[in-house]
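Entry 14. Ran structure prediction on the chain below.
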Amino acid sequence: MPKEIGFALPVIGESVPAGNDWIHEVKYDGYRLRVVRNGNRVKLITKNGHDWTKRYPWIVETALNIREEHFVIDGEAVILGVDGMSDFDALHSRQEDHEVQLYAFDCLAFGGDDLTGLPLHMRKTNLMQLLRGRSQGIFVAPFEAGPIGPELFDAACKMGLEGLVSKHRERAYRFGRCDHWIKNKNRNHPAYTRVMESF
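Output, structure tokens:
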């Protein structure tokens, strides 16, 4: 397992990268969260270091039901509305904590091995192996690779989604602001003007 590390954070982009070396993920409107499992113990940690293990029981239960007993997952805690879109107001209200799930987009450790030094595309492969067959509780956030990024961003905006995060497929996981993680926001989405994005 890796030593305690911080969170990789995106920089704000002026445009969506269109090259072949980029992986694009839809930006969900939720709280950044890390899931750490060691044997029969699970911890949910926010990017500010708060322990939210007791807050989201569905994520904890799902993590304990995964066959692998040692892993670290990075993702976004969300509540999905009936339309399948993330509902930040419901998440923030704390009235439906039992319905909060994790869109997982990175795997930092698997089977006790530290994966942070591996390129993103290999970490994605490990994440898909870890969560194969899981569609609820904790599941792989959809992503697309290659020059489709600008088109995907336009489509996300038309659907009313928060935006897109584009990540270089060959880069390792690094603490702090990363110029190889680029966030482009939908200017018409409520999150664009929200003062407090997360806790």
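The two ends are 25 Å apart (CA to CA). Will compare against last week's run tomorrow.
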